[in-house]
Design brief:
The structure is a homodimer of 358-residue chains. By secondary structure, chain A is an alpha/beta fold. Chain A has two domains: 16-253, Aspartate Aminotransferase, domain 2 (3-Layer(aba) Sandwich); 257-356, Aspartate Aminotransferase, domain 1. The first copy, chain A, is built from ten helices and 14 strands. In chain A, helix 3 (75-87) runs parallel beside helix 4 and helix 8 packs parallel to helix 10 (340-356). In chain A, 54% of the residues are buried. At the A-B interface, helix 1, helix 3 and helix 7 of A face helix 1, helix 3 and helix 7 of B.
Chain lengths: 358, 358
Amino acid sequence: MAKKYNFFAGPAILPQEVMKKAQAELLDFNGIGLSIMEISHRSKDFEAVINGAETKIRTLLGVPENFSVMFLQGGASLQFGMIPMNLLIGKKADYVNTGAWAKKAIKEAKLFGMVNVAASSEDKNFSYIPETFNFTADAQYVHITSNETIGGVQWMNFPETNSVPLIIDMSSDIFSRKIDFKNIGMIYAGAQKNIGPAGATLVIMRNDLVEACADGLTTMLSYKTHAKEKSMYNTPPCFIIYIIKLVMEWIESHGGLAGIEKINNEKAKTLYDAIDGSNGYFKGTAALKDRSKMNVTFRLPSEELEEKFINEAKKAGFIGLKGHRSVGGCRASLYNAMSLEGVSELTQFMKKFAAENK
Amino acid sequence: MAKKYNFFAGPAILPQEVMKKAQAELLDFNGIGLSIMEISHRSKDFEAVINGAETKIRTLLGVPENFSVMFLQGGASLQFGMIPMNLLIGKKADYVNTGAWAKKAIKEAKLFGMVNVAASSEDKNFSYIPETFNFTADAQYVHITSNETIGGVQWMNFPETNSVPLIIDMSSDIFSRKIDFKNIGMIYAGAQKNIGPAGATLVIMRNDLVEACADGLTTMLSYKTHAKEKSMYNTPPCFIIYIIKLVMEWIESHGGLAGIEKINNEKAKTLYDAIDGSNGYFKGTAALKDRSKMNVTFRLPSEELEEKFINEAKKAGFIGLKGHRSVGGCRASLYNAMSLEGVSELTQFMKKFAAENK
């Protein structure tokens, strides 16, 4: 079987080393004669897994001590509702509208309080990140989406919010680069891009915000519950958390986030260079300054050629290159587990395709 | 390595055939060169998995056509809140209090509407299932817990609710026996006992109840969303759903629920016979008529002997026999994947222990 490269926007590929280790110990974890899927979440073996995953996350991201790390469920989509339910009720928050994911977060927040859209890039089909913001002085928080998978834009620097807590949906670029926790009140991310398989949501929240969460919520929807019970109020998604721990070990072995960021920069440069060096055959859709290093969006001279490109690429082993149905075109997602080799091979294929399909 | 038997109340063991198949295809699913964890939830390969899982669930349980099958997240604990949030707001519902799990459901429901506890077995430490009920005529629904893992009691027959929809938390005995959907409006279950690994929640809901759900809820907490989008509003826990499909195939290969129920009856009889035939050395804690076939709770002559029994059993390869910390004693959970052989070996060990520790 020929090697396949999966450029899907998510769930994404996982590191081969991680998958091989998971396979090797799938029937017998730690020599206990049972799978990690088959033991109590209150067992010492699983406690070591979840505590180990948390410790590695804290170390890799440099999470300050006054933050809680939680493993939840329901994806970023549930967070869109949980955040305002806990922190907004009847008050004001600022949201920056940078694309489909930000819009979903805004829609849910409006169910619970007053939402000020402090900036939007909808005027240019979400092809850039705004640089000026109409922030509210008494906002409970400012919400942004660090990377938009559909428009292919990414915040290179987070906005200055002057002591208003910044809440960031990092679903599609967490662990792809170092981050500065200054201004940050909370970050969250569905696991299925850079963290692990679908089925867990990582939430990292400053403890004063946890304390400020609304009372009277149903237990499972209160961050207070999960911070206090260290993600063990009820049975967590044990196997997903186990894979997350393995992925964190893989990141460590690649020089941590500094090492990963360097490789991600090379991967993105390789692909954007191929696009920009194609004499206009391929055209990037995002503003140069805001080009995402995770999701590279581009067009070909016609929709017919795009369809042909996507199909021939698939036959050659490069799958998932179709752009999101709402915008069309092509998209290559370069999450952490995608190798530089995979990106280089894709650019070779692109060159060949362009030469043969003038 | 000696064979181990895991009698934990959950997460439970999974069938060996399932684990071996999962291991064999972990790196290459369907010959696509990628793991089931590494592909888009919108891909044809995953769609076949989730549709296949649903079809098998419908066939095995005999789910009537006017019910929706949903794969959610957050465990039964999130359902405790979602049910009243969707169906109770400001109205009345009847709950039967049979133990720790029913109590949790009651606590969450009280946040949203009026709760009538129609019967309770708290007077005898939840050691039996009530038989008379003080139902409300205009209740939105009647909620029961089909099996209580801590008290070790199980409903042998569901109550007659006279057209009021019955909502049943079946987390710990779903797929252990045939069920009659008469009166049933909804059943739900965390996956980690008889369905698969922790990380998915199965919800089966009559469509008129789906339609009756409250509007204005945050999107992810509305059953309408998940019924309409067929569990694909956002990324579902793909790998867990894949294992669920394998578990359903395993149940099929054991004669469906009729076959599984027969084995479960034998397993439970074997263990209860050993308890009842021990001349009072082992004593079952549940009322005879309500003894759970999933969680067998029993005591030894003293707490010291219980501790010794649990420790020596562990050394002999029988793990997870400690009763829940809130009640003490011993508990052996006999979920579907536990073999009759495992139960027989446990009873041999019990006999030997009793003889040696008079």
